[in-house]
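Cross-posted from the bioinformatics board.
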Amino acid sequence: MQRLRFVLIFLLLLIPIAIHAEVKEYKLNNSLKVLIIEDHKAPLATFQIWYRVGSRNESTGKTGLSHLLEHMMFKGTPEYGSKAFSKIVQKNGGIDNAFTTKDYTMYYQIMASNRIGLSIELEADRMTNLIMDPKETIAERSVVMEERRLRYEDDPQNSLYEEVMAAAFKVHPYRWPVIGWMSDLASIEREDLYNHYKTYYSPDNAVIVVAGDIRPGDEIEKIRASFGQIPPCPPKRPLTSKETEQMGERRIYLKREAELPYILIGYHTPSFPDEDSYALDVLGMVLSGGKSARLYKSIVYEKKLALYAYADYSGLHNDPYLFFFAATAAPGKDITDVENALYAEIEKIKKEPPSGHEVQKAKNQVEASFIMGQDSIYIQAMRIGTFEMLGGWQLMEKYLDGIRRVTPEDVQRVAKKYLNEDNRTAGILIPTKGRSEK
Amino acid sequence: MRSEKLKDIKLSTIDYRLFLSLLLFTVYCLLSTDVHALDVKRTVLPNGLTVLHSERHNLPIVMVTLFVKASPLDEPDDKAGLANLTAELLTEGTKRRRAADISDEIEFIGASLDASTGSDYISVTLSILKKDVEKGFDLFSDVLLNPVFPQEELDRKRELIKGSLRQREEDPSFLAERAFKKEVFGEHPYGRLVEGTVETIGKINREDLRRFHSDYYLPNNSILSVVGDLTSDELNSLIKRYLGTWYKGSIPVGKKNGITELKAKKVIKIDRDLTQANIVLGHLGISRDNPDYYAVSIMNYILGGGGFSSRLMQSIRDEMGLAYDVHSFFVSNKEHGVFQAGVQTRNESANTAIDEILKQMRRIRTESVTDHELSDAKTYLTGSFPRRLDTNRKIADFLASGEFYNLGPDYIERYPDYINSVTKEDVLRVARKYLDPERLVVVVVANQSKANIKIE
């Protein structure tokens, strides 16, 4: 069997601390990639399997498929029986969960390191042997509808998020929510799910990340034994949708029962590892990296216009995504004033680059968060997996490097380039039925 | 006032005494014998501060947690929210620093310094890189010892709290939870939000904050827990240097917070334009020092605490497909506790979900759990324990909490025995004793005309 092995230890000149742990990389014959981090600080390990499938791989009429499939993955195989997965993990003292994003789906367990073999067996089994009983599929569909009611239908600010996404993207599947539209959920059949499963759940479309109190040499043998015989699938059709350039502001209003007006704005931006992504990330932190950052200081603290105000560059996506601004108006304040205050901050940075202090602060925050992240095996594995989904875990080093190179002028330049009226979608939540304070 | 209480020992002048105290009071507790042993040193300083320290040199970080018994339990009822406002304003101005300086200094080094308010204590936490630990302790001690509670910061924070209370009205689970606590605990501080109400925080002035701080923020009323890349010598010198002027004082006599047990079932309906009914039901539970705590943990794991392994999840989510989330839990605090179950389901299924929860409560009170259920609960609770200690941050918080609730220095070693000694008979006994389906508080936030709640 072919075995690739990279051992990379990063010795950084400026920071005498390893910013992330050593990663051992393997690839099985069926193209399954395995990344292992050895960390003996606690007698635990986490096993994560990442599939390159998310709502990005769905189509109109069948949105929510990937997420519903994630739910079905807990419903059992002939080997372990119906709904047994989590029970087995739990009685072995572990926890397990999963989540679905627009770009990928991730399953994980955290358990005593001497039981992590169980994760390997269970995950290998459900990669190919899911039963997907039709009756259970229908029941789980209603569970996801309840989840949708909980997260979106009854949450005014999240509802606005759905509206803004649907307006900002007209071509790319980022326009629909991961959980799917309600009527699509109602129409998803067992067959849809099963096809989705057989298309995307295969070793060539997955990456395993293991971190913790384990020996890579032992774990890779177990992984090879359990996953090695699973055949790869034919190549997936690549997603070809490309969002067209936005030429003019889009505005959304959402009127519903709520307490306070809320604004959410998205500007189209490229994603990592685009050369502009580093400066955009620093821009996000200069604006919103804590209470000392500009938006809080100006809009919440000094002008007292909003209860909170934030900016967020979401650059860790497979395709170009958005740079967000959001704010909840303080009671009695006009949302138009809040919106104008946000734009004023944007104009300020376009006119004058941020200070060296502000940019250095952002860089320090990134470095510190990478070091502190190593406190948790779960977060370490998450980081590796996230970058792997974007093209390779080694990109993490590229990311850190890119951040270190950002200058105040870069930050000003990307603000000028992307944060423009014609490139934005602004959504405003207008509360109806104003209730008096209780 | 502060000056009257400062007759006690002055730490900074007694280096030798500090040294002596280390010899006298330090207890080394080797908490486990394997390679992952957690070595914790417990010291009580002459000023009364309890210090817990675990050296962990695997990463160049230091995690600090300070608990101060200055919670809503200690504030006057008509100034509810005082404890929280005091904690929130620690980082908003000191004798040496303005609010903006504090946040800028801490954020510049990628660290965090936060104060938050729980039911039984407030906590101040610092997460910092080893190389910045001097700076971190400087800031930590400054906000702890020298806050000045500027009037404009008080006004600003008060408005933000009022605004956030208003905004949370959008959240059905917040509405349900608030109504539920109020009904279960009545006038006891556990029955209200730590933030207080718009009315009570309106009455709080700077003098209240200063007095509350000087009355309760005392070393002999606090627990300091430090975990990470720091030796004992380094920690001792940091404490000497930055907490050396923290003086012992007399803690005001605690006030009595009475709780009246509910006599009959009570149903509260809150009408909102929602697609789901948000249901919370339950009643008083047990305090943390109740010896039945472990049997209750197992019983609740089986009933509704054990995620997909729990009966509520299996029936209401897996079999009936009625909800995404259904759970039950016991929160056990110092003076009392609460049992509550919760579920969100579309308005039309509200009655069915409530009936099923009641059915499961009755069942666990009448039939013994199976051997499998008992043993699965035990292997989960004991097997997952190390996960509660798998980061320096978690260890720091855990040590402080173990000290606060008097769990004993060998708690980590003994926990498996506490769990494994529970029998099926114990589970049945505590279910009968601590679950009462006939005297529940039931709160339903829903579109009431669609939910059409039957229970009375």
